[in-house]
Amino acid sequence: MKKLVSNPKDVLSGLIMVITGIAFLVVGRGYEFGQASRIGPGFFPALLASLLVLVGLAVGVKGLRSEGESIRAFATKPTLLIVAATLAFGFLVRTAGLAVASAAVVLIAALASPSFRWTQGILLAIGLAALCSIVFVFALGLPIPVVGPLLGR
Question: Structure pTM?
Answer without folding.
Answer: 0.65
